[in-house]
Amino acid sequence: MDDDDFLNSEPPVDPHDTRPAGRARQRVAQRRREQSSKRSRDPVRRRGLDQIAPAGGFKLPDFRLPRNQIYLAYAVGAVFFIILIVFVLGRLRNDTPERPPNALWIGTEWTYETHDDATMEQLVADLRERKIGTVYAWVSWLQPDETWRGVDNFDKVSAFAEQFKRLYPESELLGWISLPVDDGTGYRLDQTDVQEKVVQFSQTTVEDFKFDGVFLNVEPVWDGDDNFLSLVRQVRAALPEGSLIAAAIPPDWSPLNADIPVPPLIVPGTVWSDSYKRSAALLLDQMAVMTYNSGLSSSSDYTLWTAYQVKTFAEALAELGAGATTELVIGMPTYEAEPPGHDPLVENIASAADGIVLGLQQAGEAARLVRGAAIYASWETDEQEWAQFQQSWLER
After folding, report:
1. Which fold has domain 100-394?
2. Distance CA 207, CA 1 (A)
3. Which end of the chain is less enclosed by CB atoms within 10 A, N or C?
4. Residue-wise pLDDT tens digits, 98-154
5. Contact, 172 vs 161, CB < 8 A?
6. Nearest one of 221, 248, 216, 220 to 232, comparing CA atoms
7. Where are the alpha helices (DSSP H) in 42-141?
8. C-alpha dihedral over 125, 368, 262, 270, to 10 degrees?
9. Separation between Cα atoms, residue 4 and residue 13, nearest integer Å
10. Can you give the residue ranges of every domain in the chain?
């Protein structure tokens, strides 16, 4: 027995010893037992022993908070958890690609033909690089006999839509449906059966061909024509919820009392009033203003004329208030000469881009409604024009 064991040992006690010294030894022994018991209950001592005990591994120290601090800890933890969830959801949302702002007309070279995935992937890559997120893809037009052209190709149209959307899911793919208002014998937009055919075919384009919506190319539409508004309203009611409707919109070809160059041919009814523009906007998700075929003879005049269209349409739609959501896209022509209306030396990517930029500056706050440019058309656009689009518009 070492010295410490000896000093801490309890002397033997005779329970029958009634002498004072014996009772003293009993009291000493009792105090030692009480002290030993107290030491074993001492949290500080117990903590130290537990921390060096190898058998059960390491143990965290006891840590007890007052009840009000426990509630505070719970609250802080809940706030932290909510912040974490918001952060994660924000990252997921930001990972979803945003639809690029510009638009493009594409024709039967895509929708009436079969293409392998490699070819379609190249198309999609080009569209993404050129920041084109809305595509007006040709479907059909209503012939004078009120039948739809190209019926034999509709299976290919449907296959194109499925393939395109699979490869470019963040885009908006709209079925381009054309309705010449004059069938050769006169005006037909007011005919009930004509409107019904357009409505039914719009349903087919969305529900059967699986387009995101329709692009209505109804020409011409004069100022205040309620038949056009009636047609769009019926299409809207017939399509599934969430379907998109866009339309080709004529420019204000020859505005009166405007401080801009105007075409030499003045045609009444070709300038839409602000109220009629707003009426159309309330029914449409997107308006593609066809700012070409102006009949002007200099690119500088065409630039000023285009700027006027941007400013006038944007300001008219801005009157709908902060809740205005209809997008404006402004046309850029790439097609060959069609005299007397279109001269590609006058109307081209560069002069159109200059006009759009100037119009956005003139429109001020209303410029927020202009989403991008719309190129007419893919089959007319060569590599030099695409390079011009990159330089004059995308890199602006």
Report:
1. TIM Barrel (3.20.20)
2. 97
3. N
4. 999 999 999 999 999 999 999 999 999 999 999 999 999 999 999 999 999 999 999
5. no
6. 216
7. 43-52, 67-94, 108-111, 117-129
8. 90
9. 20
10. 3-52, 65-96, 100-394
pLDDT of residue 97: 85
CA 263 to chain centre: 38
| Residues facing 132 on adjacent strands | 102
C-alpha–C-alpha distance, residues 47 and 42, integer Å: 8
State the DSSP H helix or E strand holding residue 327, giving kind and residue range, or none if neither.
strand 327-333
The Cα–Cα gap between 107 and 139 comes to 8
Q: Give the count of alpha carbons within 13 A of 289, CB side only.
A: 34
Question: For residue 144, what are the β-bridge partners?
Answer: none
Bond from prior residue into 144 cis (ω within 30 degrees of 0): no
CA 355 to chain centre: 26
Average pLDDT over residues 260-287: 92
Q: Where are the alpha helices (DSSP H) in 204-298?
A: 226-238, 274-281
Amino acid 212 reads D
